[in-house]
Amino acid sequence: MTAEVPAIDVSSISVVICAYTDERWDDVIAAVESLRRQTAAPKEIVVVVDHRPTLLKRVRRALPEVIAIPNTGPTGLSGARNSGVVASTGSVVAFLDDDARAAPDWLERIALAYRDPRVIGVGGTSEPVWPGKRPVWFPAEFDWVVGCTYRGMPEQTSQVRNLIGSNMSLRRDVLEQLGGFRSGIGRVGVRPVGCEETELCIRAAQRWPDALLLYEPRARVSHRVSHGRATWSYFRSRCFSEGLSKALVSRLVGAGDGLATERAYTRRTLPLGVVHGLSDAVCRRDLGGLARAAAISTGLLMTASGYLLGRLIRVDAVTLDPATASFGTGLR
Q: CA nearest 265: which of 304, 216, 228?
């Protein structure tokens, strides 16, 4: 990082939204509208379209006030985010998912957290918005499956290892000095892989051990969960793919840092989740508690299976096929 750390207010923050499909058109419009309604306006809104020329034209026609650009890097979320960083000019770059909506004070909450010059990144709460009622079997401990804050995360402002991708921000000079998000890791379209933001945050902490990544729960966004992601089959697939991604991250940054948060989550959060589920079934006669306890056990098993497979063979996080992966950074 630079020796001089500038003061941050909302007008210093650029917001990047990455889009890849017309199926989320209404979501993109809603995400941009939520930024228009902020209590203080951002420096700019950048919408990056992932190699979909017709969608890019549609964004430029419908949203002339935003900076709409194509992903000039590899296909996928990492390349799109890096393209957004290059196109933006704010001293802080915030990332909002295309199917998320920011609370009116989202950017103000983020800016306040940067008052401490040691803070290099700030993230916040991502609340799931289910298609109807929340599935009774879906445990809150696994809300990360749908890209949201999960039970076991801090309930007050705290230092964390990594930020959640649907609601995060980082100082520009950090992104530039790290080279951005790694290509070859993270989500491409609907493939249920991830961890590109985890890997970047760990790299940042390894490079600047005294720096802080903060979770500010009052910086809130709502994150729409599609029908397809509220299913048992997606739950299992996403957990398995997370294990593959964790194996990849561990290979890149070391298992000590790559699994530090996961170890605590597995030892404390998940056993308590099973106990809560069983208690709900017995004390409240809520049979969904049994289903949630079973889902926690299954989710852990699927994630561990994916991790073990990823450690045994070299797995390309984009294709999920055994391969010799090559990883490069996106900002030069």
A: 304
Residues facing residue 126 across a β-bridge: 221
| CA distance to 187, 243, 328, per residue, from 6 (Å) | 32, 38, 29
Q: At what angle do helices 288-312 and 232-253 cross, to 10 degrees?
A: 40
Residues 109-162 have pLDDT tens digits of 999 999 999 999 999 999 999 999 999 999 999 999 999 999 999 999 999 999
The pLDDT value recorded for residue 253 is 87
| Residue 329 in domain | no
Burial 136-171 (b: 16+ CB within 10 A, else e): ebbbbbbbbbbbbbbebbeeebeebbbbbbbbbbbb
Catalogue the E-assigned strands of 180-327: 182-183, 212-224
Quick one: which of 58, 57, 29 has its CA closest to 45?
Answer: 29
β 13-19/167-171 pair status: unpaired
Domain coverage including residue 164: 10-311
In whole angstroms, give the CA distance from residue 10 to residue 12. Answer: 5
Confirm whether 110 is domain-assigned.
Answer: yes
Query: Domain total for the chain?
Result: 1
Question: How would you class 130 by CB atoms within 10 Å of its CB: exposed for 0-12, middle for 13-18, buried for 19 or more?
Answer: middle
SS3 196: helix
Contact 205, 213 (CB under 8 A): yes
Best CA proximity match to 186, nearest among 72, 317, 319, 69: 317
CATH number of the domain bearing residue 164: 3.90.550.10
Q: Is residue 319 part of a domain?
A: no
For 159-173, the DSSP string reads E-S---TTEEEEEHH
Q: Which residues of the chain have pLDDT under 50?
A: 2, 189-190, 315-329, 332
325 falls within a domain: no
**Residues facing 93 on adjacent strands:** 14, 170
